[in-house]
Structure formats: C-alpha cells, structure tokens
Write a structure and sequence with these properties.
The chain is an alpha/beta fold. It has 17 helices and eight strands. Strands 1, 2, 3, 4, 5 and 6 form a six-stranded mixed β-sheet that branches. A two-stranded antiparallel sheet has the order 7-8. The longest helix has 29 residues, at about 155-185. It starts with a helix and ends in a 5-residue tail after the last helix.
Length: about 425
C-alpha cells in the first residue's frame, strides 16, 4: 500500500486540515490537475473567509491556460456541496474551483455548467498528515495537544506569536469596553466605574456588580465626591446588602437611614438580587469590595483621566484609601472579626491593572487613533505573572513566563486556541506542521 494511502487508511480527513493545506499551499506548485484532467495552477489561494459563504474569496486560478478570478469552496467530499445545499445559495454562484479530498460526485452550477474540482487526496505529503495525526492524538497529551513538542518550537516564532496573542487579548477585552462606551454615551469615567465594579466583583459577583453600577446614574457618584459615608450607603444599598435587621449594629442602621434618604432623593431602585458570599474568601466579600470602591470614588472625582495620564505603574495612590473604621473589625454586618485594615492588597491592585487599567488604556488609545502598544508591553512586563493552574501547567512545558504580559498571552493561547483545538490557527501548532502563520 502506498505511503499516502497508508496514512489516510487510519486517519479520517477533516475539513479544517484541508483549509490549512489550501491556505498555506501544502501541495505541489506544479503538476496539479482537476478530476477532469485539466491542468490547474494556483496563482492565489484567496482570502480565508471565516463567516458564511465560500471558504476563500478572490482566488486566482489558471485552468487550461485561462486565468479565472473568483471564490473557492472546500469540502471533504464533493457530495458535501449538495449536503450543505450550496446549489440553492446565490453566494456560491461565483465559485470557480471546488477543492475536495475525495471526488465522489460531479457538482454543477444552476446554468448546468460543471464546477472544476481539484482532489487533493493524491497530492498531499505524507508528513503533513502524520504530523496532524500526531498533534490531535489524545493519547499523547493531557494538557494541550502539542505539549510533547511544545519546547521544540523555535523561540522567535513562539515569542512573536505570544506578542500577537497579548494584543489579541486586549482587542477581545475592548469589545466589552466598546459596548459599555455605547451604553454610557461615550462617558469614559462611567466606563471605568463599571469596569472596576466588574473587577471588584471577581468571578462570582462581577455580573451583579456591573448591574449595581448600571442602576446608579453616574452623576450621583459625582455628587457624592468627598462624602464617603453617603457613597458607601449608596453602593451597599443598591446591592441589597442593607436588607438585614440587627438592632444593636449602629453603623448598619445609620447606613440604612442614609440610604433611605438617598433612594428617595434620587429615585433609586436596587438591583434584583444580592451578591453572593458562597465560596469567597472574606476579603472578597461583597461588603468589603463595595466599601473599598466607595472609598476610592469618594476621594477621586476624575479617576479615569488620572489613570490614563499616568504612564508608569504608580497607581497605588489612587487605590490607597481604606474602608471606613467599621470594617476594621467586620467582614459582614453584625459579625465581629480580628481587627485589621481592609486596604487593597498589591496582588489585587495588579489584577486591577491587568484586567481594567491596561485594557482601558488600550481601548482609549484606539479610540483616539493612537497605538502605544510598546508602552503597554513595558508596563505589563513589570507586573508579576498571574498564578493559576493554567499558567502552572505551561510552566511545566519549560516555558519562560516571567510577567503578566506573558501570562496574559498564555491564557489567551489556552482559552482561545488550545481548548478549542484551533491548532491550525496557532503559530505554534502550524510550526509543528512546518509552516508559518
């Protein structure tokens, strides 16, 4: 049995591999023929389309010496054309070449003309198929597909890809920021307020914390500048965290009284449910995080512009305010705890920089038509890497994760490529198949 057929015997062809082969021309440049024995030369593979419609736009194909420009559709089998009802879709009328692995049926246009078909089955190097089979063999890995060969990838390729992943992660976060920007009518100060609420809410309460922010007209936050007690009663009241009865808790009762006044004055409606405490460490309790945030905004009236204008990592001064004295001995109402200041820790501040300040700087730069990526790179390179199970597993692969810039890039790699088996869209996976992305 020929080597190529031997590989195909134990491997079921996938369409994503055919896309990869076509896009990066992993087939002979010369000597190609259609299934009708017409000489075919690929001048341009076209632009890869990830949305609906043909797989590649604006390809240039020379058939029998005549140059054609149009679209290319790719399937494992020719019959998939009809299985996907492309014959009924006008978007496929301009397909000039049907690229398949196996030609099992002729495909025709509405006018009766047959679409030229190129079967790649007999043209693909065995090594490409063997490497792909190895990459996706689940018996060979436990963490990511390429873990056994991860350290074999050229350092320049990997580092360049990680830089691109870091920017990609910021672009992804910018999507949410732009949504908030539309919601707030381009009020960047309010966007920061909502983004900080999301970060202060952590994974458990981030959604409800954002809803708390949206339930308050931001002009009210402005009006409570230099009024820390009123600010605290506002946020805790809007979070439904004052809806408890403890007769001997004087501070709680004063907050409730103040919130009643504010709610009538500003016609406030609290959120539909209270934040969660379950599975949270005491420092992440919603009472503590909202008390911290209220103290920050009681002392900073133009926080966004202060952070944007600061191109160093000296953000501590904007988040140095501690909570009111009551929280020195409490994590929740009515329950005394060991005395201690509830200031924002350095590790939590780093998370705020990583998840809020840097993404906002990136989005604001884009909004202003500027791109200071190098400045953001330098800032993130000074922050310690994040510690979690994903980063720990990458560390085992002899990677060099030294800073938050690195850890953010690796998180983007893992969440958007590794877990989704998008190895062919990844420079590391592509490198293991001997091709550059």
């Amino acid at each position: 049995m020929p080597a190529l057929q031997r590989v195909f015997y134990f491997y079921e062809m996938k369409e994503d591999l055919l896309h990869f082969i076509w896009k990066y021309k992993k087939y002979p440049v010369n000597g190609l023929e259609t299934t009708s024995n017409e000489p075919v030369y690929i001048k341009s593979a076209g632009i890869h389309n990830h949305l609906s419609g043909p797989d590649f736009f604006n390809a240039q194909i020379e058939l029998n010496g005549q140059l054609w420009a149009g679209n290319v559709e790719i399937h494992v089998k020719s019959s998939d054309w009809y299985a996907h009802n492309h014959q009924e879709d006008r978007n496929y009328d301009n397909v000039i070449l049907h690229v398949v692995w196996e030609d099992d049926i002729g495909v025709y246009r509405k006018d009766g003309g047959q679409i030229p078909t190129l079967s790649l089955k007999n043209y693909i190097p065995v090594q490409v198929l063997e490497n792909y089979q190895k990459l996706f063999n689940v018996k060979n890995h436990r963490f990511i597909n390429c873990e056994n060969d991860f350290d074999k990838v050229d350092g320049f390729i990997r580092n360049n890809w990680l830089d691109r992943l870091f920017i990609e992660r910021l672009e992804q976060k910018s999507v949410y920021i732009n949504e908030l920007l539309r919601y707030t009518n381009n009020n960047w100060e309010q966007v920061l307020f909502l983004m900080l609420l999301k970060s202060f809410g952590s994974k458990i309460n981030r959604e409800i914390f954002v809803e708390i922010g949206k339930s308050i007209d931001f002009s009210i936050i402005r009006k409570l500048y230099k009024k820390p007690f009123q600010m605290e009663s506002l946020l805790l009241g809007q979070a439904n965290l004052l809806e408890v009865t403890i007769d001997d808790d004087q501070y709680l009762n004063e907050l409730k009284k103040e919130y009643t006044f504010l709610s009538h004055k500003f016609n406030l409606i609290p959120v539909f449910k209270s934040p969660e405490y379950f599975r949270l460490r005491p420092m992440n309790f919603p009472t503590i995080r909202l008390a911290q945030l209220s103290a920050i905004y009681a002392e900073n009236n133009n926080l966004f512009h202060s952070l944007i204008e600061n191109n160093e990592l000296d953000f501590q001064e904007y988040f140095k305010e501690g909570t009111s004295q009551y929280w020195d001995t409490h994590y929740n109402f009515g329950k005394n705890s060991k005395k201690g200041k509830k200031k924002i820790s350095n590790s939590f501040l780093n998370l705020l920089i990583i998840n809020t300040i840097i993404p906002l700087k990136f989005a604001y730069n884009r909004y202003q038509g500027a791109q200071d990526n190098e400045g953001l790179f330098k800032m993130m390179a000074k922050i310690k890497k994040e510690e979690n199970s994903i980063i720990a597993n990458f560390d085992k692969l002899e990677t060099s994760i030294l800073s938050a810039k690195d850890s953010q890039a690796y998180l983007q790699l893992y969440n958007n490529y590794c877990t989704k088996d998008k190895c062919l869209d990844c420079a590391i996976g592509a490198s293991l198949l001997n091709v550059k992305v």
